[in-house]
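Input/output pair, single chain:
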Amino acid sequence: MSPGNRKVAVVGVALSDCGRVDEATPYTLHAQAARRALADAGLDREVVDGFASAGTGVLAPVEVAEYLGLRPNWVDSTTVGGSTWEVMAAHAADAIAAGHARAVLLVYGSTARADVKAGRRTGNLSFGARGPLQFEVPYGHTLIAKYAMAARRHMIEHGTTVEQLAQVAVQARANAALNPDAMFRDPITVDDVLSGPMIADPFTKLHCCIRSDGGAAVLLASEEVVRDCRTAPVWVLGTGEHVSHATMSEWPDFTVSPAAVSGRLAFERAGVRPAELDFAEIYDAFTYMTLVTLEDLGFCAKGEGGAFVEKGRLLVEGGELPVNTDGGGLSAQHPGMRGLFLLVEAVRQLRGEAGARQVRRRTDGRPPRLGVASGTGGWFCSSGTVVLGAG
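Output:
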C-alpha cells in the first residue's frame, strides 16, 4: 500500500470526567481522556506517533504531549475556535493517508466552569481588543452579541421566529434526557426558553450553551493499525475546512456560515449527499448556530431552517434527522471548545454504543451508517466538517 492511498479510521474515542469537576486540572482531564481513548482502541501509547492539541499554554501541543509521556513525530496546534478539532481531524487524516504518521491522538481538556467558580478567571465577553477587533469592541460587540446580531438578521430576512430558535434548545434537552452523562437533563419547553433572563436580544439564557468542565480524545489510525484494534473502525470519508472573517464588518452575509463551504467540500470528497446521512453533530454554542448550519450543510434550503427545526426533526426519538444526540453544548457539556465532543458522539453512534440515545435507521432499526460532525469557531469565523462512515 503506497503512501497517499491509506484509508483512515477513528479507532478510539473517550471523554474525561465532565460536568462539574472541581478538583481536576486541564492536564488531568487531558490525561483521563487520552488513557480512556487508547483503552477503547485496545492499544498502547507507543503506537501514537502523531499528536494534536490546543487550548493550553503557549507551547500546546508540546507541553501536553510531555505531560502524557508522548514524543510525536507529527504535531498540530491549529487553533480556530470551536471548529479546531474537526480541522485537526482533517489534517491528521491527510497526514496518515500520506504516510507521515500511523496513529494520531487528538486531545482536549478544560476546567472552564471550575475556573470561573473559583475566581481563577472571569467569563469571556469578547476575544480581546487587539488587531482588527479593536474597532468593534467599543461598540459592545461581545461574543454573544455577535451571534445575536446574526440571528436577528436571519429573522429579518427569512421570517425565522424566536419560538423556532427556542425549539432547538427544547429538542437538545430532550436528547440530553437520554444521556446519563449530560449536565442538564430535565425537560424544558418553548415558554421556559422565552421567559428566561435576556442575555443578548433575541437570546435568553437557554438559547446559550452551558459552561462545564471536561475533556475528550479521539484516536485516528491507518488501515494497518486498525487490524490491531479491539473496536470496529469508523472511517473518515471526507473532510472540509473554511475560514470566513474576523470582524463582523467583513462578513458578507450574516445568514450564511462558513459551513456552507466546509460542508460542500466534505460531502463532495466523501461522495455522499446530505440526504443520505443518518444524523448530524453540530456545534451549538447558541441555538441559531444549529439552525443556520443545518441550512448551510444542505439539510434544508436557505431560509427554511426555522420550519425545519420546529417539527421535532432533531430528536433522537422520532426525529427525521437526529441532531446533537448527546444533548449538545446547550445541555450536555461545553467546556470552552466543544468540537472534539462532536466527533466522540458521532463515533459512538456509528458503533452502536450510544445506549438510550442510540439512533436507529428507519429502514431496518440497525445503527446508522453515515454521520457528520461540523464544528464552528469564533463567531462563525471558521468551520470544519467531517463525514464519517461505519465499517
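The first helix runs from residue 26 to 41. The mean pLDDT is 93.
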